[in-house]
Write a structure and sequence with these properties.
Number of strands: 7
CATH topology of the largest domain: Rossmann fold
Strand content: 5-15%
Radius of gyration: 16 Å
Strand order of the largest sheet: 5-4-1-6-7
Largest sheet: 5 strands, parallel
Helix content: 40-55%
Number of domains: 2
Number of helices: 9
CATH class of the largest domain: Alpha Beta
Shape: globular
CATH superfamily of the largest domain: HAD superfamily/HAD-like
Length: 206
């Protein structure tokens, strides 16, 4: 069986981080002097590729170092009680590794937050590499992260898959020329998406 590279988005795909993300964004807004947003409203727009997140959430032209600092501060102090793996994800990663596949993460989260999250959830060691927001010139929907992973692992895109839960992931995958699998247990519901981890496992193990 030929070795595959499976790249996963993190939030909304591997990790149910909806509570932490909403609370962290509101924590930054509070530090900036803005009123909190409803968590459901934040989650509805966090994956919307038509939204400029810096302007939408923080009324800023671009993300600033203080935004990352405050977001990471909240994440670090609260991820242990708020983050959970989606059911079946650990078993999926174990099965994929047992078949000799390479695994990676491409996430618009910052590297420190990503490592903290994956380590806390005890899945960090399953991954051969990570590509995070602060590792590349442009985050998703741009394909920079996926190019970085392909180059680092010296793996052909034709034998790779990218698994994500939103249009930013899909657009990045399409631009990189990597086959894409959409799941819908995260922040966004989709037509023609995979509805369970068991179904995803069957697709990835083919």
């Amino acid at each position: 069986m030929s070795q595959k590279l499976i790249i996963f988005d993190m939030d909304g795909t591997l990790v149910n981080s909806s509570l932490t993300i909403a609370n962290a964004i509101n924590y930054v807004r509070q530090r900036l002097g803005y009123e909190p947003m409803e968590p459901e409203y934040i989650l509805k727009h966090v994956n919307d590729h038509t939204v400029d997140p810096a302007r939408f959430f923080y009324h800023a032209k671009a993300f600033e170092p203080k935004h990352e600092q405050w977001f990471s501060e909240y994440y670090t102090n609260n991820h242990e009680k708020e983050l959970v793996l989606y059911d079946g994800i650990r078993e999926l990663l174990e099965s994929l590794k047992a078949e000799g596949n390479k695994l990676a993460v491409a996430t618009n989260a910052y590297r420190n937050s990503t490592i903290e999250s994956l380590t806390h959830l005890d899945i960090y060691n399953y991954f051969d590499t990570l590509a995070c927001y602060d590792d590349v010139p442009k985050g998703k929907p741009h394909p920079d992260m996926l190019y970085k992973i392909l180059e680092e692992l010296k793996h052909p895109k034709e034998k790779s898959r990218f698994v994500g839960d939103g249009p930013r992931d899909e657009m990045a995958s399409r631009q990189a020329g990597i086959p894409y699998v959409m799941v819908d247990w995260g922040f966004t519901e989709h037509n023609n998406a995979v509805h369970s981890v068991e179904e995803l496992k069957k697709i990835l193990m083919k």
